[in-house]
Specification:
Alpha-D-Glucose-1,6-Bisphosphate, Chain A, domain 3; binds zinc ion; 553 residues; 18% strand; binds 2-acetamido-2-deoxy-1-O-phosphono-alpha-D-galactopyranose
């Protein structure tokens, strides 16, 4: 049959090189870009099948390797809600990517389709939106994905072009909600909701001076800087200067720049000079789904004051909490209240000082394993869920139910001629935040605009933000081992269950340190075991990490 022939054809066009082994890790398949075509083609088949299974709802494919070096590339799949592909399809993704020959691939697809109740070759439709970042292997891999998609009868591929990862996730989500989903629709949503914050919702006495308006953004020589250049003139109230914008001659993608570099190395990225000391700066990663802030502390060295994902999370959490409190404790004549469950989601990499800070402010904090797919899912359990990884990936999600309550509250308040009331304005701020922030996935551009809006609203400088709490000194190390899967963890990755003796050794080392905390886990994106240690001094954190790394080796 036609379907069989197409699958056999495409599989023989992209033979799997011997010795290749792909695993759908924390963020899809990743490897040297030149070796990725077979896996990307098969991800195309997978995405088309996923769409068929979900009655033709749009599914997404993003071709990127995020913060990894320019020679790498990768592929991941977005589900119709704009989130990561449902985890129970990952074992099939692995099997498909590693099918040794065309026949094996065909049999796998047929069997899986049968198990999942997917009828192939019938009158179904499927649509897959594709996006890629600026990597040189992107175009070639996009073609492999298209061929994979077209191998499923009835599937329709739409190339959305060169995009940030979160843009593509947003487009998939919007398309399935029946909202306009082009790039200009995305930009309009960001610009409009940002302007609403800045022009209508910031108290009048907090206009901000020139320095408060100035922001330098390190674009990691990736796609985020390119997009920011396109919209910055339309962003009222901030004056953005993009460095490492990816223009010819500015430097190499993610090399000595970008959010991962700044967060891990805690030094100034390439392209900054002593003139920038004291200015508020932000750094994106190569596909613009991570965001951190920093400030050059002095002209004499390259150290920075870092505001990582944990502190962005803290800013967002305080802002949302404050608006909810205004709505609920306002004592206004209207007297409407809106109880809402606010949940904060972190991973074990969150700095202990941030967790303490959030709890001290009466916030509910929960933990999940590393990886956005876990954090996002947890956040969805709340009326408002805020999640961030320390590395700067995170967002805020609002339940549909909460948003419709908010809508009717603001309708009532405005018709009661209470238009200018604090309660009404707080409701409008929450509404604008829900429109500004990308609810599909962490998005550095929308996150950056929300940070800027909140700093203006609070009249805070970078210094005020930095001083919310002081990070505990920490150290991250990578250990190369023969088989990283031999380490198995439990309790949101904070404890090792196998090998059984390792946790005891970690506990013993940790007990020797004041405020010591340490855990190890196999990376889901690199062939290493990661060690994280925290203590009251840098010397202790370093030595704790080193001695535990020694036990892992
Ligand atoms: P792994 O390699 O599984 O630690 C890394 C990051 C994650 C996440 C993914 C996807 C750390 C410690 N880990 O995962 O947070 O961002 O990459 O990009 O930063
Ligand atoms: Zn990224």
């Amino acid at each position: 049959r036609e379907q069989r022939r197409r699958l056999l054809d495409v599989a023989s066009r992209f033979p799997l090189p011997s010795g290749c082994r792909f695993s759908y890790g924390t963020a899809g398949f990743r490897a040297d870009g030149a070796t990725m075509a077979p896996a990307v083609c098969r991800a195309g088949i997978l995405a088309a099948l996923r769409s068929v299974k979900l009655a033709g709802a749009a599914v997404g494919i993003v071709i990127t390797a995020s913060h990894n070096p320019v020679g790498d590339n990768g592929v991941k799949i977005a589900d119709p809600d704009g989130g990561m592909m449902a985890q129970h399809w990952e074992p099939f993704a692995d099997a498909l990517a590693n099918a040794p020959d065309p026949d094996a691939l065909l049999q796998l697809v047929l069997q899986f389709a049968k198990d999942e109740g997917i009828s192939l070759g019938g009158h179904h439709t499927a649509q897959v939106l594709l996006g890629r970042d600026t990597r040189p292997t992107g175009e070639y891999l996009l073609d492999a994905a298209l061929q994979g998609i077209n191998a499923i009868v009835g599937a329709h591929a739409i190339d959305m072009g060169i995009l940030t990862t979160p843009q593509l996730h947003w487009m998939v989500r919007s398309k399935n909600k029946g909202i306009k989903a082009s790039e200009s629709d995305y930009f309009t949503q960001l610009i409009d909701s940002f302007s609403r914050h800045m022009l209508e919702l910031v108290p009048k006495d907090k206009g901000g001076d020139e320095l408060a308006k100035k922001l330098i953004v390190d674009g990691a020589n990736g796609i985020g800087g390119v997009k920011l250049e396109q919209i910055k003139a339309e962003l009222s109230g901030i004056d953005i200067n993009v460095r490492n914008s990816g223009k010819e001659g500015e430097g190499i993608l993610n090399h000595m720049c970008g959010a991962d570099f700044v967060q891990k190395e805690r030094v100034t990225p390439h392209g900054f000079s002593p003139e920038d000391v004291g200015v508020r700066c932000a750094s994106l990663d190569g596909d613009a789904d991570r965001l951190v802030y920093f400030r050059m502390s002095s002209a004499s060295d390259n150290k920075v004051d870092l505001v990582d994902g944990d502190k962005i999370l803290s800013l967002f959490a305080l802002f949302i909490r404050e608006q909810l409190d205004i709505i609920n404790n306002n004592g206004s004549q209207v007297n409407k209240s809106m109880p809402a469950r606010l949940g904060i989601v972190q991973t074990a990499y969150a700095n202990g000082a941030s967790t303490q800070f959030l709890k001290n402010h009466g916030l509910e904090v929960v933990f999940t394993p590393t990886g956005v797919k876990y954090l996002h899912k947890k956040a969805l359990e709340y009326d408002i869920g805020i999640y961030f990884e320390a590395n700067g990936h995170g967002t805020i999600v609002f339940s549909e139910d909460f948003l419709s309550q908010l809508q009717s509250l603001s309708n009532e308040l405005s018709s009661d001629a209470a238009n200018g009331s604090a309660q009404y304005r707080a409701a409008m701020r929450l509404m604008a935040a829900s429109q500004l922030i990308n609810q599909a996935v962490g998005d550095a551009l929308s996150g950056l605009l929300l940070v800027e809006a909140i700093l203006q609203y609070k009249g805070w400088s970078f210094q005020n933000w930095c001083e919310l709490y002081s990070d505990l000194p920490s150290r991250q190390l990578k250990v190369k081992v023969i088989d990283r899967s031999s380490i198995v963890t439990t309790e949101a990755e904070t404890k090792v269950s196998q090998p059984s003796s390792l946790q005891e050794l970690i506990d013993k080392e940790t007990a020797n340190c004041a405020h010591g905390r340490c855990f190890v886990r196999p990376s889901g994106t690199e062939d290493v075991v990661r060690v994280y240690a925290e203590a009251s001094t840098q010397v202790e954190a370093d030595s704790l990490a080193r001695s535990v790394a020694h036990h892992v080796e």
